[in-house]
């Protein structure tokens, strides 16, 4: 169904965004959203923005809040008797200052430059170990064989989560990642997986509470132990805040860097000259990573809540309404980039929104860049003639969009 000017109706566009059929390539749909202009849904208390200028302004705007409890929809639900936070204390990403500032500062120690640098040799060894299992001429799943196990091992090492327990919490993490999708916002209904996600969230928090209890009696060189020490030093960090912080970082470690590495592999294999160029010049890896972050970002969208009336590109969003920020759309905006739908690592220095902006800029950005750079350099150097062995299969996630399988012949 289209309007008088040939543009799809807003509701149709948003429902198509949730449709699994668009997961493999949502970018034509993002183009339609940009062409149509901001989608304003006053009856549902939200608006959707897709150009670079719009998204950049929202992410920088002082009236943009991350705490969902500040939204009109959330306050209405609370007034109706629904629990304010059904999944418990949120991670600092979903809080605003001063709580966000305090919690982020404590978590930041795990991602300090000296800590990230110290991990480099370990990341190299992990990558070499994973690739050593492959024989030239073989076919392997680049997700299961490299993109997934590497960042998961690193985040487990940082947090102090036993890697042996990873199979138990990976499924829970995957379900909780789906909770970031704007299903309720776009449809007004909870998704079919809501009860499963609620159960997964309770299990994972219980698991982390148990781990905190273990670290109280047996502290180690890890983030959980450091957060406990901060609490005991009078930093007023509650156990729920420790668990919520670890919960956030664990889910992020399971999803985002996995997608970054996999998306870069896919982009290069679809343009083999870039694969060949990197295989002979590992110095190109950082440009490959940055262009992947622009061209096919691991986090496709985000949202903010207007704490006061906000006017973005001539559109007024009332206080309490949500603003959907389509970063993946913004990074294909022809007003910002030449040939935006072309994967071009040689386009030179670029601005992108893949890690966010301002106080919520991604804490793990340096680590993600390091892991991806090492993994992509090693993979292309070892297997310079690799090829796609079939089409990838995508997970259902909209926000943390990524592949479930990526067959590669090495």
Automatic annotation (TrEMBL):
Any matching Pfam family: p450
Keywords of this entry: Heme, Iron, Metal-binding, Monooxygenase, Oxidoreductase
InterPro entries on file: Cyt_P450 (IPR001128), Cyt_P450_B (IPR002397), Cyt_P450_CS (IPR017972), Cyt_P450_sf (IPR036396)
Record has Iron as a keyword: yes
Top-rank taxon: Bacteria
Family named by the database record: Belongs to the cytochrome P450 family.
PANTHER family: CYTOCHROME P450 YJIB-RELATED (PTHR46696:SF1), P450, PUTATIVE (EUROFUNG)-RELATED (PTHR46696)
Protein name (record): Cytochrome P450
Organism annotation: [Mycobacterium] wendilense
Taxonomic lineage: Bacteria, Bacillati, Actinomycetota, Actinomycetes, Mycobacteriales
